Amino acid sequence: MISRLMLYAVVAKLSFQRFSTYRAATAAGVFTNTVFGVIISYTYIALWRQHPMLGGYDQADALTYAWLGQSLLMTVALFGGGFQDELAERVRKGDIAIDLYRPVHVQTWWLVADLGRAAFQLLARGIPPTLFGAFLFHLRFPSSPLTWIWFLVSVFLAVLVSFGYRYLVALSAFWLVDSRGVDYLVGVSAMFMSGMTLPIVVFPGWLAGVAHGLPFAATIQAPIDVFLGVHTGADLAASMAVQAGWAAVLLAVGHVVTGLATRKVVVAGG
Amino acid sequence: MVDPVLSAVREYCLLAWMWIRSSMVYRTSFVTMAVGQFLITMLDFLAILVMFSNVEVLGGFGLGQVAFLYGVSGFCLGAADLLVGNVERLGRRIRDGSLDAMLIRPVPTLIQVCADEFQLRRVGRLAQACMVLGLGSTTAGIDWSPGDAGLLALTLLSGTAIFCSVFIVFASFQFITQDASEVANAFTYGGNTLTQYPLTIFPKEIIKAVTFIIPLAFVNWYPCLHILGRPDPLDLPGWTQFVSPLVATVSAAVTGCVWRLGIRNYRSTGS
User: Fold this and answer.
1) CA angle B74, A34, B38 (to 5 degrees)
2) A80-89, A160-169, B154-163, range with the lowest pLDDT
3) How far apart are CA A56 and CA A62, in angstroms?
């Protein structure tokens, strides 16, 4: 049991290091996030200047939302950049047979690797754009250290939810062979329905209802609301319970589908 | 002068046609992806509709006028993405050595890099932009004259050329660092996002930067100000609203120089 945990810790650490190798790519990504952060900030300013309390946010909240969105984009791998291309590719090529042969649980293996990746992205792609944003605009940072802790817990849950559905997307390759179309469609829905393009709080009621019925809201809107201190007390607990609930459901489905997919694998010698 | 250009266009078309035929083998996949691209960019416009469900005007522009700006910018970005978008794979080609193979073929390298793996499904994005442009043209309260229509046609051509230049110039940076392909996104897709909105919502410094440094404002903003009959927030002389073709020509010339400089200093990574 202990050795198993050690193994997973090593997988997560190696995954972290693997992503940290691409320094130029990281710097380029931070630059792009910052440019988008600036553009989105001015669109929000234009909106909130007319409606100072739109969606229950004031302008500082809205701008903080814009920059945190850019900072979390890669951490929760909303639109590409996660492990799913790699896993789907292994399914397509048949390398997955080797993974199944290993004495580790496939889903847990990819989960810890993705957690290592997310930790790196949170530090390298999350902090610099937020600092740039705070330098250029008036943002709202939590005053209580407790809020920072809840925020980190919420981001962790967000990564679990995002892993949960991306793992299912990758496993669809067992049936579809080419899962890129599904990956693309899910990525795009995620961009909108997570509140990445616009905060869900400004959606008209019916659309907000759709967004809250999907797991994507747990990846962007939920952690940022924790950061902004929108929820307190029981509300805060409820919001994180929704995230944890999605994570549990998606991971459980992933577990079942892994079993189904494994039964489909036919190794054609060689 | 004319002959090499014509043969380059012919070679581009031949290469692109080959990839179109190859994608047509998987017709269902092609249709799904094209429709997917259409829906995806539709979600992008939905964000603007959601904004306008909360406000009447944005930066002094109504929904129809913003749709018009959006449509022009989206068309130009979509067309440039279709024509030369694959240039962003340059870094990968340098890494895996496939650029070397292109260098010894008797077709200009830039043509090969842009036409290779030509993705016709990107017309999905273009179709969405045309739809929004149609919506904007009819609801922005434009009093269309033949001159306006001519200006719009020229603008679509020039804007496409400007975005093509931006794609190629920033992809050329991958001759220096192969990993930094994402920087280009800040100016291509970022430029598209910026020009979807009336520039009046941005500070003057940003408007100046996209006028004088990276001429994205000439993709749609200045000519559209004329067509929409709106005053220029920078109070530039009126002729700036008609010079997009000139700006596009200069951009293309600069792009040619940058690309050549890159190719000339390119050193293969070896096998």
Assistant:
1) 25
2) A80-89
3) 10
Average pLDDT rounded to a whole number, residues B164-187 = 90
Distance from CA of A118 to the nearest CA of B (A): 19
Q: What is the mean pLDDT of residues B197-208?
A: 96
Q: Which residues of B touch A202 (CB under 8 A)?
A: 50-51, 54
Rounded to whole angstroms, how far apart are CA atoms B160 and B150?
Answer: 16
d(CA B244, CA B154): 8
Three-class SS of B125-140: HHHHHHHHHHHHHHHC
- In the structure, what pLDDT confidence band is assigned to residue B69 with cuts at 50, 70 and 90? very high
Tokens of A117: 């990746």
Which is it for the CA torsion B145, B150, B154, B157, positive or negative? positive
**Measuring CA to CA, how many Å separate A94 from each of A85, A88, A89, A259, B218?**
14, 10, 8, 17, 50
pLDDT tens digits for range B232-250 = 999 999 999 999 999 999 9
| Residue B104 per-residue DSSP state | T
Q: Are B221 and B227 in contact (CB under 8 A)?
A: no
Token look-up 């001015």 returns A42
User: Which residues of chain A approach chain B closer than 8 Å at the C-beta?
Assistant: 22-25, 27-29, 31-32, 35-36, 38-40, 42-43, 45-47, 50-51, 54, 178, 181, 184-185, 188-189, 191-192, 197-198, 202-204, 207
Q: What gap in Å lies between CA A62 and CA A139, rounded to an integer?
A: 9
Q: Does residue B271 surpass a pLDDT of 70? A: no
> What residues contact A145, with CB distance under 8 A and at least 6 apart?
none
Mean pLDDT (whole number) for A95-108: 86
